Task: inverse folding
């Protein structure tokens, strides 16, 4: 069951990247057609939003991987899954840092 959640998180992250590429390519195509530089600047908004969403899903996936490893090793599991990683790893996920606390 935990593996299914991890797979779903990875799939959501992959789908977000696909949507981001499609949306940004569409906005760039509109900016080239109309020669309006405002479209070029607007393209950065979905990039940042999709980056945030991808970081969120990556953070959750990492937390569930830690939970999976604890279950696999038959270690004590906290009552709340949010206690597995004490410090939020959203920044680590956003910037690609691998170390978990």
Result:
């Amino acid at each position: 069951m935990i593996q299914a959640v991890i797979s779903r998180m990875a799939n959501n992250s992959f789908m977000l990247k696909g949507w981001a590429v499609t949306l940004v390519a569409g906005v760039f195509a509109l900016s080239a057609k109309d020669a309006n530089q405002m479209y070029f600047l607007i393209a950065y908004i979905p990039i940042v939003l999709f980056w945030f969403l991808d970081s969120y899903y990556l953070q959750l996936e990492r937390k569930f991987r830690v939970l999976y490893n604890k279950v696999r090793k038959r270690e004590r599991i906290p009552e709340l899954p949010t206690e597995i990683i004490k410090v939020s790893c959203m920044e680590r996920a956003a910037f690609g840092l691998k170390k978990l606390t």
About this structure: Confidence is low (pLDDT under 50) at residues 83-87. DSSP finds four helices and no strands in the chain. The chain has one domain: 2-95. Residues 2-95 form one domain.
